[in-house]
Structure prediction request, 298 residues.
Amino acid sequence: MIPYVRDIEIEYGRCDRVSPLIRRVTANNPGPFTFKGTGTYIVGNGEVAVIDPGPDDPAHLEAILAAVAGETVSHILITHHHSDHSPLAGPLKARTGAPIYGCAVAGHEAEDTGEVKMEAGHDHDFRPDVSLCGGGTVSGAGWTMEAIATPGHTSNHLCYALKEEDACFTGDHIMGWSTTVITPPDGDMTDYLASLDEIRGRQFDVLWPTHGPPIRDVDAFIAAYIDHRQERVDQILGALKTGPARIRELVPTLYADVDSRLHPAAARSMLAAMIHLVRKGVLAADGTPGPDSVYRLA
Ligand SMILES: [Zn+2]
Prediction:
């Protein structure tokens, strides 16, 4: 079982001091993919970085600006281009002059998720001023952060390690309140599992996801996160022992414990697992593995 952490006390628009170097302002966009809302982090004191400014919400922009009144915003750091993370970067840049850091999505711009409403959608306008694809270090007065490429949830996902507190801002890569949705083709399960190993190997003291409270029992949590993916794989393999099946036939049974509003997303995560398993030679599909393919044990 994943030792979820969901206790968080927030008031929308309020700035909470959560560590010596970290403050958080939460946007009023709660939902099935965002938990209580987007937690925008302000790192440093006096000269600060803002991580994931969030959705294009004027009230949230004003709340961030009020929180940093009298200070200088020197960096706007983006974990990935989903619409609950990056759209406010442009308006925040316009008001502060701070450049935007992150990784642009290389392909998939014409991505079609069909009739399925995925996550909060993609921010197709996301264009960082400074590219951190593949990693890089940024610093300000009293803080140093390393961007760590963590593809999987999206191809351009970055985590940001805060050296002074042995902390890592994990975006949607690792979240305390929920597992992460992996949506092909931009999401990739093979990459995701490698990115979990990457963060686990660094043995951070604390993880700060964009949604929900921090994760403090880091290694046990990531271990359980990895086990959970393996359990899902085992369930798929178990179900296919009785014969070939399509994803839509498997989801209602295998995700019976998940909010049914999330079943379309679960189907995309299952597709990500199917693609991963076909790549590994464990499963076979009739043709290119897709949402409507029939899958069988190889
Ligand atoms: Zn996301």
Residues 218-240 form the longest helix (23 residues). The radius of gyration is 19 Å. The chain is about 25% helix and 20% strand.
